[in-house]
Design a protein that fits this description.
The complex is a heterodimer. In chain A, about 80% of the residues lie in helices and about 0% in strands. Chain A contains 7 helices and no strands. The longest helix of chain A is centred in the middle third of the chain and has 61 residues, at about 65-125. In chain B, helix 2 packs parallel to helix 3. The chains are: A mainly alpha, B alpha/beta. The interface between A and B is medium-sized, with 24 and 28 residues.
């Protein structure tokens, strides 16, 4: 028998004795004692719960980290990610421009070299008149001149392609910072769920909550759904439709 | 394959449009036009009426590629236009949906110049043959 129940039993015996002996004052005193014992343990329990609730609410309110993240760091991260989009787009544009400027130069280089090669073969085969040879000689001169300008222009364009890759350093740093922030937000959200006593949503419910298109597949990340892993599987799938 | 054919390239990202256009140029096509989503592409196709080939992305704001494909197939003047989809969407059900909507080819991003060439040749071999 617990200590509390022992006390209660001895109180009950005392009470029975007092009733038998007709001790009115004693009975009243004893009943008051029993009630106040009960009440004090109840009050202690309520007090404890109140304190815990108060602390939890205070912790929540005072967690300035959450506030800071919501007010400053998340909007800030959005700005930073927009900057990543801008930088990568700029780099892609710069690279494409350099390529678009270089391809016609290469085409002309090829075309003119082919023309000269044909004439040169004829010259080697002694199929060329002196007048024609003079024309060829002039053409070779002009081609060499063109080649020097052309090659240095292409080299300049390639340097531009090279320099356009400098976005990687900046965007890499920015994205890494945002990943850290997202990790922290996740941790705080989990804590919040624990405080509020809610159960974390089961993983299976994730797919239902998502809607729309998935976008690019990211290696090592399963968005759910039955996906192909590349062009070969697309071709296999389509061949079953008679493609 | 007729290298003078009129081609419309539809993608919401200008860099992607430039890449596809450059690759098509490399394959000898010169008559290239572009639009940034289905909603701008469809009137272009309808008004001009002389496009020979459509290359479209799937995921775009405004009108999506799949809806553009369906609209093209539903229009009696455009229904025979060959359509190649170039997209990052890799769900089996989406590829099946595109096939059922009448797509002529499906390329997943990222893709290579060789893949684009191969699919183009396949599409026009079927049409010409």
């Amino acid at each position: 028998m617990s200590e509390e129940n022992n006390d209660l039993m001895s109180d009950a015996r005392k009470l029975a004795d007092m009733v038998n002996s007709g001790d009115e004052a004693g009975i009243n005193q004893l009943l008051d004692d029993i009630i106040s014992k009960r009440q004090s343990s109840l009050f202690m329990e309520v007090g404890k719960l109140t304190r815990e609730l108060h602390d939890a609410l205070n912790n929540f309110k005072l967690d300035s980290r959450i506030n800071e993240m919501a007010q400053e760091e998340i909007p800030d991260a959005k700005e930073r990610l927009n900057y990543v989009i801008t930088k990568t787009e700029e780099a892609a544009d710069r690279t494409l421009t350099a390529v678009e400027n270089s391809v016609p130069l290469c085409d002309e280089m090829l075309q003119r070299a082919n023309d000269i090669k044909n004439d040169w073969e004829r010259f080697k085969g002694r199929e060329m008149e002196p007048g024609e040879f003079r024309a060829l000689s002039k053409e070779v001169d002009a081609y060499l001149e063109f080649l020097i300008n052309d090659a240095s222009q292409i080299k300049h364009n390639l340097t531009d392609v090279l320099m356009a890759q400098d976005f990687q350093d900046l965007t890499g740093q920015i994205i890494r910072r945002v990943i850290t922030l997202v990790g922290e937000v996740e941790e705080n959200l989990v804590n919040l769920l624990k405080v509020s006593g809610s159960q974390i949503i089961k993983k299976g419910d994730k797919d239902k909550a998502k809607s729309g298109l998935d976008g690019p597949v990211v290696p090592g990340l399963d968005d759910g759904g039955d996906k192909v892993s590349g062009q070969d599987e697309v071709d296999d799938l389509l061949s079953s439709f008679g493609f | 394959m007729d290298h003078n054919m009129k081609i419309l390239v539809v993608d919401d990202f200008s860099t992607m449009r430039r890449i596809v256009k450059n690759l098509l140029k490399e394959l000898g096509f010169e008559n290239l036009h572009e639009a940034d989503d289905g909603a701008t592409a469809l009137p272009l196709l309808k008004d001009a009426g002389d496009f020979d080939f459509l290359v479209t992305d799937w995921n775009m704001p405004g009108m999506q590629g799949i809806d553009l494909l369906k609209a093209v197939r539903a229009d009696p003047n455009l229904s025979h236009l060959p359509v190649l989809m170039v997209t990052a969407e890799q769900k089996r059900e989406q590829i099946v949906e595109a096939a059922q909507a009448g797509v002529n080819g499906y390329i997943v991003k990222p893709f290579t110049a060789a893949t684009l060439k191969e699919k183009l040749e396949k599409i026009f071999d079927r049409i010409d043959g």
